[in-house]
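Dear Dr. K.,

Following up on our conversation at the group meeting, I've run the structure prediction for Cytochrome c from Variovorax ureilyticus. I'm pasting the input sequence below exactly as I used it, so you can double-check it against your construct before we proceed with anything downstream. Let me know if the numbering doesn't match what you have in your notebook.
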Amino acid sequence: MKRLVTSALAMACAALAAPSQAQFAKAEDAVKYRQSAMFIQSQNVARLGAMASGRAPYDAAVAVANAEVVAQISRLPWAGFAPGTEGGKAKSEIWREQAKFKELSERLMADADKLLVAAKAGSVDALKAAMGPLGETCKSCHDTFRNR
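The predicted structure tokens came back this morning:
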């Protein structure tokens, strides 16, 4: 799992080095890219949420593994929101309210980093405390910038 995430992160970093118009051959590719990153992120957040809420047994090692993925993946979807990549469930407000979108994306990355620190603490209580702000950030961004 770590190798896959590391490879994906390396590819994303390489893609970020290219001009945004060169990153994706078609707007649909950008949409698929960002949706894929968000899907992977949501699956790992859901596992952490299940442990934090008691719906799944708490396993410190699994929590760390999932939090590592969330922290790394949280940096990826933003390249898929370049100008000319409108579509999918993204509202047009993303491209009109770039400052707010950027602020929420940065907050998500910071919350994901804090989640990883909490997971490494090895305490379900620390995990619970970090899940709240992350969930609030996700909700705030989706409420503002995502069509249902």
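Two things stood out to me. Residues 27-53 form the longest helix (27 residues). Confidence is low (pLDDT under 50) at residues 13-21.

Best regards,
J.T.
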